[in-house]
Amino acid sequence: MWSCTQLVTQLKDMGIQQGDTLLMHTSLRSLGDVRDRSATLLNAVLNVIGVEGTLMVPTFTASCADSTENMTDESERNALRMLTPSFNRKTSPSDVHLTGYFSEEVRNHAGSKRSDHPIYSFASIGAQAEFLTQSTPLSYPLGSSGPLHKLHQLDGKVLLVGVDQTVNISLRLAEIWAKCPYIHRSIEVKSADNRWVKVEGVLQCRTGFERITPLLRNSRIMKTGRLGDADCYIMSHRMLVSMGVAMLAGDPSAILCRNESCSSCIQARKMCRETTV
Prior knowledge:
Elements: H1 4-13, E1 21-26, H2 37-49, E2 54-58, H3 74-83, H4 96-99, H5 102-107, E3 113-114, E4 122-126, H6 129-133, H7 147-153, E5 157-161, H8 170-177, E6 186-190, E7 196-200, H9 213-218, E8 222-227, E9 230-236, H10 237-250, H11 263-276
Parallel strand pairs: 1-2, 1-5
Antiparallel strand pairs: 2-4, 3-4, 5-9, 6-7, 8-9
């Protein structure tokens, strides 16, 4: 069984240190045999980064978004929209199938701050928590002025625990800054005051994000490590985003997936072709 002390040592071996600002994406199951996995992991991380450091995790709530776009029966559509929960900054749980159970451990921590975006919120603990989670724009929340941009300003790090680049939403910031033609997709969301509001710049398929891995590895931007039984990847947020922007500048479709049945990426690739003609 892995102890908190052992996790602390492994985190330090990966280069995590006092004062770091850290964005984590985590599969708790990948840690292996750890008692009270989420609590033990959180204690280990906070121990390593210290009081001057800051931890941030995504606490996304896709359940607050309109899921009736393709429904033709108006009465059924209205009924389902009535049942859609509105976002509550304090009580809305993360959609753990998107963000993992560790996000809930961080969100429920007594010292946690949470941003107020109705679908793309983040929770943060530490010295820069207030800065990272305040005043997220409604549209393009993963772009400039949002938490990812603020992490960029703080020269933060990204740590992937038992997961790969397909969950690394920092690449969304690269897509926006590279002005990829497909970044403007919108969706309606039920906000905190129970109103339906339009959000532009929402995430699409992320399967293709894995295509940046060879570049990150060959350039030594991405380092590997172990945490419990989990394979881990750690990288500078600034260097990650810069590499993403450079990759997309050469080919705006570079991190779209190649699945022939993915309508989202098919449409996005078509938009890329149209803008380069």
